[in-house]
Design a protein that fits this description.
two-stranded antiparallel sheet, two-stranded antiparallel ribbon, globular
Length: about 525
């Protein structure tokens, strides 16, 4: 019986590689393998031909097709980690690549949905075959718990790396949500649906353009339910007034935000924030939301049809007004001092990886797993690309229409439906482009750095994106904490050489972090060392 742990990781599948004499097994961290048809002129299996002839036409030996690792998955995963490091560590110098303060989409806003997309693709490949549902469920739940643990440890407030050399968090203010926590929720839901529907899954698809959708209808039903829960809650839940407390010079000041409305998509009175305040408590939310960089809010106030009846006279009124409201700061796109008489909610906490928005994020994983299903069932490159590209552009068109008609703006903080479509569509197009370049045309070497990072994504995320490695070296300083080797390299090798803090910071992130960890990940790959949860 196949090891369920290895199967879930993707090291095993039903169509195992032919074990020839002297052949080495794939030890590259697994999970991203898929069947391919051997070339017509491939004579490597000629050793079998003689035995086939001797056994006759009626008695053919069982020769299983080879499996080939899809390098695009590792490269795409590595790209996501690279973008995360870039926007986290260089976003302070180049604020325009940092998260959008509210509506809109910047480079940083692609990171989370790209990661959820590739998680979905990997789940489809890892769970192609599920020999024992019970073992697979245990593995999924264990990995979910590990993700939650690391998420709370790294982003809950316990770790202050790399800037502060202190550890510990006040449990009254611990942050329960974060990047890994959202990934854990999406992974658990999507993987469990994939596992429990394994027995009813077809091995071959029926003819028709929608057969891939009907064959995996339960996955789409799960995604649709998450969409339904999010939309109904967002537009139907009543948001009352709410309060928060600010501490200044050992004094506590309580402020109240006036709401009393439904369906509001602005920063102060949306249902996403309300759900998090009710479920987690306002003290457990992210205390430095990016909306502090907001300069102006565009509010759309709709006048619905009103009917005035006076005897036989009736008048219909339908209109809308666009209202520009001054928001938090005049320093946009930079962080800066709050504007005088700025709305009080500018100083309030808000959770960008909250519960309701994470439910919406399940749809990102669902779209990713669909791309994985296409990879499994369609053997020709052209068939795969036709499905991927058409769906990618379709999602982009839906998002653009929703955003520019002001129906549902693209908004990462709310994880709006248009944001799901826009980022998933972009992920599909980028994934398709990587697939053409790497797996179809064979331009693999230019992407090796991304591949290596993608194979050890968790290690690079913890050490680089979360600053644990830099914090370790910052702990060895001379006279004061600013005189550490990391700060010295950043200051003397990059910033002073280029006479620019912004450019120096960017070059340090590219060479001192991304390139460095790409090389480290490559060395670990050669040694067969991978950190997997």
């Amino acid at each position: 019986m196949e090891d369920p742990k290895k199967l879930e990781e993707g090291y095993l599948n039903n169509n195992t590689t032919i074990k020839e004499e002297g052949q080495k097994t794939d030890k590259n961290g697994g999970g991203d393998v898929i069947e391919i048809d051997p070339p017509a002129n491939d004579t490597r299996n000629g050793a079998f031909d003689k035995s086939v002839d001797q056994k006759g036409e009626d008695e053919q030996p069982l020769v299983k097709q080879k499996s080939k690792r899809v390098a695009t998955l590792d490269a795409f995963r590595g790209l996501t980690i690279v973008l995360m490091i870039l926007v986290d560590d260089a976003g302070g110098a180049y604020e325009r690549i940092d998260h959008s303060p509210w509506n809109g989409c910047t480079l940083a806003d692609f990171v989370m949905p790209f990661f959820l997309f590739i998680v979905g693709v990997a789940i489809a490949l890892a769970l192609k075959k599920v020999p024992k549902i019970k073992d697979a469920v245990k593995k999924i739940l264990l990995r979910t718990i590990k993700l939650l643990f690391w998420g709370i440890l790294l982003q809950g407030g316990y770790s202050h790396a790399p800037a502060d050399l202190v550890y510990g968090v006040d449990m009254k203010k611990i942050r329960w949500c974060g990047i890994l926590q959202r990934i854990a929720l999406v992974y658990m839901v999507v993987a469990l649906i994939e596992t429990f529907t394994a027995k009813g899954r077809p091995t071959t698809l029926k003819p028709g353009p929608f057969s891939i959708f009907t064959a995996y209808r339960w996955q789409w039903i799960g995604g649709f339910l998450s969409f339904l829960i999010y939309m109904i809650t967002t537009f139907a839940l009543y948001v009352p007034d709410w309060s928060f407390v600010l501490h200044h010079k050992k004094e506590a000041y309580k402020y109240t935000v006036k709401c009393g409305m439904r369906g509001h998509l602005g920063p102060a009175c949306n249902a996403v924030g309300y759900v998090d305040r009710q479920v987690w408590g306002i003290n457990h939310l992210y205390s430095q939301p990016v909306w502090r960089r907001l300069k102006v809010i565009i509010c759309l106030s709709y006048c619905f049809k009103l009917y005035f009846k006076r005897q036989s006279f009736r008048t219909n009124i339908s209109c809308f007004m666009t209202i520009f409201v001054k928001a938090c700061t005049l320093s946009y796109p930079n962080y800066g001092p709050l504007r005088e008489n700025a709305p009080i909610w500018c100083q309030a906490p808000f959770e960008p990886e909250g519960l309701l928005s994470s439910i919406s994020a399940i749809l990102s994983g669902t779209i990713g797993i669909h791309y994985g299903h296409v990879l499994i069932h369609f053997k020709e490159h052209s068939e795969r690309l036709k499905h991927w590209v058409s769906m990618g552009f379709g999602l982009l068109i839906i998002a653009i229409i929703l955003h520019f008609t002001d129906a549902i703006p693209i908004n990462k903080q709310l994880y709006s439906f248009s944001y799901v479509c826009f980022t998933a569509g972009a992920a599909g197009i980028v994934f398709s482009a990587f697939y053409i370049l790497i797996d179809v045309w064979g331009f693999r070497k230019p992407f090796l750095l991304l591949e290596w990072i993608g194979m050890n994504a968790m290690l690079v995320f913890v050490m680089a994106a979360q600053g644990i490695f830099a914090a370790f070296f910052n702990g060895w300083y001379y006279e004061n904490e600013d005189n550490s080797i990391v700060n010295w390299v950043q200051e003397h090798v990059f910033i002073r050489v280029w006479h620019s803090e912004r450019l120096g910071t960017l070059l340090y992130v590219i060479f001192g972090e991304i390139l460095f960890w790409g090389v480290v990940a490559g060395i670990l790959h050669k040694l067969g060392i991978y950190w997997k949860l």
